[in-house]
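Person: I have long wanted to understand how a fold can be written as tokens. Underneath my words sits a plain record pairing an amino acid chain with its backbone structure tokens. Those tokens are not coordinates but codes from a learned vocabulary of shapes. I should like you to check that the lines agree and flag anything odd. The protein I mean follows directly.
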Amino acid sequence: MLRKQGWKRWLWVMVAGLVLATLLAGCTSKTTEKYPPEDKAAAVFGYYWAPTALMGMYDWYILEEPEYDPDIWAKITAAKDDPSLRPLSEACAYETVPITKGVWSGLKDMAPDVYEMLKKMVIGLEPINRTAAWAKAHEVQNWEDAAIWYLQNFEERWKQWVTPEAYEKVKAALAGNPTAPSPEKPTILFGDAQFESIWINNAIAEYIVKYGYGYPAESVQMTTVVWQVALPKGDIHVQLELWKQNLQDWFNEQIAKGTIEELGMTYEGGPQFFIIPQWVHEKYNINTIFDMKDHWELFQDPEDPSKGAFYNCIIGWQCAAINEVKLEAYGLTDYYNIISPGSSGALEAALAGPQKRYQARQQ
């Protein structure tokens, strides 16, 4: 009888121990969760570039990558067009180079005064950043408003681009007395690849072309792939942001053929990079692109929780394909789904949304 009671007591002790261990394990897992839900909701990983208002509106950390190497970059651009070369064993950061203007080779004969103005036109990185921030703060819908703000605030800069007569006409237009463009002059067509800085740059140039030189001017919306065909044929006349580092083979080929001309810098440097919020970098000690392998769960894809989400360059842009090659070489495609938005606005919203949630937590 005593032996039976001992076995019962031992069994109860064992059951109670298992229950207690289970409860403790549950509590421990909750208190030591690697990524709190509120952090996962406010973390984001993606590609972006400057100049843009987004980079000034929130605190971002640019992930460290291996330095730009021209030999490695040549392999990246080749693999972008030839999947048989992938995956690469290495990749590197984008090269930061001045963003230059390209024009159809016939523009010089069609509108020589506009051609000469564009050669001198340097919008400037700091002025375009300030203009973009002003436009965002004032929720600008008509980009001519941003052009007017730029022209009013950076007069000494643009005065150097134009003839004295054009200067006086632009000043008159800014004062509310514009001279209408002449219908007898050809319309100057600017390529619009649908992103913030090109909208501002086009608006500035178009304002000067219309009210300073008397030519009708307009922007034509098109993807990068389309304007690569349109510019050499003269279907558009001006592309103010070539981003030739992403299009080097095409650029070299068209320059050799004489179908386009490069007319110098639009602004100093067009950096491209991979970013995470600054607070994520500081809290989780994420410093390099390679650190992202260990933290994919922090950036979990809501559509596929088995991987993180990387918000890529816009569909149809060359940087979208380049980033795929780079992430694959960095070994991140096993950990992240690559999401390519359909517009610059969609990409900005994807990156800004988590930052807004983090800011709301701090209030």
Summary: The domain at 99-267 is CATH 3.10.105.10 (Dipeptide-binding Protein; domain 3). Residues 184 and 270 are 37 Å apart (CA to CA).
